[in-house]
Amino acid sequence: MDVSLIIPTYNEKDNIHPLVERIHRAMGSLGIAYEIWFVDDSTDDTVAVLRDLERADPAVHVFHREHERGLASAVVRGFERAKGRFLVVMDADLQHPPELLPAIYERLSSGIDVVIPSRFVEGGSDGGLGPMRKLISWTARIIGQLALHRLRKISDCTSGFFGLRRDVIEGVELNPIGWKILIEVLVKGHYRSVHEIAYEFLARDFGESKMSLKEQWNYFRHLVRLVSQSPKDRRFFLFCLIGLSGVVVNETVLTILWYGLHLRDTVASVVASCVAMLNNYIWNDRVTWRSESSGRGWGRKLPVFVGISLVGVAMTTLVMRFCERFGVPVPIGQALGIVVSTVWSYWMNSRVTWRNIERESRQEGIVVTRESVQEALVRAKTGV
Ligand SMILES: Nc1nc2c(ncn2[C@@H]2O[C@H](COP(=O)(O)OP(=O)(O)O)[C@@H](O)[C@H]2O)c(=O)[nH]1
Ligand SMILES: [Mg+2]
């Protein structure tokens, strides 16, 4: 089997026949073996339409679920049943044009690991969404890209339309929450190359969208889980948490020295800051950038860390003073300064203090390429 198409369905009865017709028309010209897996959770008579089709069309298979629901898990069940060398996921509502399938197949068979039709590459569009959905979708993508480094170069990382070689997910435990199976695949999968093809996301003719506020919340939970499972992506959050712990240590030591031991305020303040810096260094060395060399090499790492932290303190004050000149209240300027210095000191620590660990994790070498829809269609027709 060359290609398995996996199509999740939830109450899509009017879309099934036009979809399957257009898939056959597009795929028929390729002369390859393909199957279509519908994973259906419908509560209307979509399943009856699918069962009739399954009997009449040997390429069509239906898996109807009674005890599980959700788009992403439906796709995982489809992956488990599919026999193809290449797996392609698409929606049933014709917002994903089946005419793009030959181009996706062509790219996968030329050796690309993951192919993503994209609404955001030149020539693409997400015109099938209303302005509110566009804004929500944009925000969701940006948050995802900030949180997970593997999504950063991918323009349409929340797409429900994509193809991959089976080995990308072989042996990978996919355990998505909610809808966005592609982010799970991109974060956990084994791949070296991603190719994006521009396409136009059209409006629905039949049925209605099942996207809801609950799914937005699930997306957020999904991101949190993926970040917590990804050593590289969780570092920044750990760094911030440890920074907060440093504030608590600082205040506690200051209180003990000043109220308890009656040291001079300046002495108490300097000692408290030094203890807090040491606290932060140890936790960052043992947790944030944990490695076999944790605990060793502190003669180099600790002074560098302290130097970066001191520059961070100076930066906070500079930003606050700069904001003050434009009439920004001091506490807000200080907060901005803290954000700037946190980002800066994280960046410096990952590139200087704990550079060996970052170097190892940067060697992923994933290559992302793009093409416009015209190029893809010409290639599909001419085979070049
Ligand atoms: N199996 C299954 N499919 C679903 C579920 N929710 C949505 N779908 C399907 O997923 C695809 C995308 O859903 P849609 O409502 O069009 O989302 P939108 O395009 O983002 O508005 C469609 O083919 C739906 O039928 C679900 O809970 N289970
Ligand atoms: Mg849709």
TrEMBL record:
One of its GO terms (molecular function) is dolichyl-phosphate beta-D-mannosyltransferase activity. Keywords: Glycosyltransferase, Membrane, Transferase, Transmembrane, Transmembrane helix. InterPro entries: DPM1-like, Glyco_trans_2-like, GtrA_DPMS_TM, Nucleotide-diphossugar_trans. Residues 4-170 form the Glycosyltransferase 2-like domain. Belongs to the glycosyltransferase 2 family. It comes from Alicyclobacillus vulcanalis. This is Dolichol-phosphate mannosyltransferase. It is a multi-pass membrane protein. GO terms for cellular component: membrane. It holds the Pfam family Glycos_transf_2. It is found in: Membrane. One of its GO terms (biological process) is protein O-linked glycosylation via mannose. Residues 239-354 form the GtrA/DPMS transmembrane domain. The chain crosses the membrane at residues 236-260, 266-283, 304-322, 328-347.
